[in-house]
């Protein structure tokens, strides 16, 4: 997948060039522009599409397959301001991506949301992981800039759970409270995730849950809204 990322890290814009006969799979609503001979097919059937669900509401997650008989361009943009990163999914392993960060991938990459390995760990943060396997390129988006770290065997890094974007399945992870219950309630820190290498870990420099909390704090009390 040939991708040119511009306007990052604040407002990243990804332009995907399709060769003649090429195709790309894109999150519903992420397409910002097409150029050239580009066709679109929207589907929820077959393969990972049958099991792909949104991380909230339980509604079906539609995706769009863009193809071009003679070549063209598909440009994508994420819902929240932030960066994009193109990563390779190897045939020998899996990449675990939080559902809100997957924006596009080669059609040769299988994205499985029926895999429940991350739901139990992350349910308190509303984070659902997508298990991406196969061989090809995957475009991730983030709220804020994206930082990547490569952990050696036994090396550990701890992330606030709201900042998790993706990690290799070779990386072990556990979710815990940031500290004591007092620190969790009064200190403003909730759940954190300990990642232990070997493998790659990606984080976003902002948290959408923090944004939601800030907006809610500025809203008038329910009684005054009426």
Automatic annotation (TrEMBL):
It holds the Pfam family AIM24. It comes from the Bacteria. This is Uncharacterized protein (TIGR00266 family).
């Amino acid at each position: 997948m040939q991708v040119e990322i511009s306007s990052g890290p604040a407002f990243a814009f990804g332009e995907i060039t399709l060769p003649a006969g090429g195709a790309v799979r894109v999150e519903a609503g992420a397409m910002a522009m097409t150029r050239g001979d580009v066709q679109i097919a929207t589907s929820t059937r077959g393969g990972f599409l049958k099991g792909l669900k949104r991380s909230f509401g339980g509604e079906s997650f539609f995706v769009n397959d863009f193809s071009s008989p003679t070549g063209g361009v598909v440009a994508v943009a994420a819902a929240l301001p932030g960066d994009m990163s193109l990563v390779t999914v190897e045939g020998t392993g899996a990449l675990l991506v939080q559902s809100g960060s997957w924006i596009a991938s080669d059609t040769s990459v299988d994205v499985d949301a029926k895999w429940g390995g991350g739901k139990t760990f992350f349910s308190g943060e509303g984070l659902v992981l997508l298990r991406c396997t196969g061989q090809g390129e995957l475009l991730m988006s983030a709220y804020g800039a994206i930082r990547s770290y490569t952990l050696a065997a036994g090396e550990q890094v701890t992330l606030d759970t709201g900042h998790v974007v993706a990690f290799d399945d070779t990386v072990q992870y556990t979710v815990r409270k940031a500290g004591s219950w007092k620190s969790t309630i009064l200190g403003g820190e909730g759940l954190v995730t300990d990642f232990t290498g070997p493998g790659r870990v990606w984080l976003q420099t902002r948290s959408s849950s923090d944004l939601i909390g800030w907006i809610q704090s500025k809203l008038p009390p329910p009684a005054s809204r009426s």
